[in-house]
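Sample entry (124 residues):
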Amino acid sequence: QLHLEESGGGSVQAGGSLRLSCAASGYSWNSMAWFRQAPGKQREGVAIIYTNSGDTRYADSVKGRFTISQDNAQNTVYLQMNSLKPEDTAMYYCAADRTRFYSGVPPPSWFRYWGQGTQVTVSS
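Predicted structure, serialized as tokens:
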């Protein structure tokens, strides 16, 4: 089993920044991703990092604003979110597993292990 715990969500005004953290323990993984889900919408991939290579991929909607990074010593992955927009408002989840490489952010079905989510609210 792989346990994931997110933190760092909150409420900010448009243009502000937040940093989300996802601490992992247990089963090994080679990729960790952030997803988000707004009320009434499907869960969408935001960013992914491949642990061994450090390779990253982003959704078009967040490119240039969000940065995913990892601290291998702490088994933690971060999502730095800058220039936040109201449309970024959602519950954010981290997910991890041993996956093959995907050219973008893989679909949620690729990941067996999920955190409980952390809410991000951006006001205009």
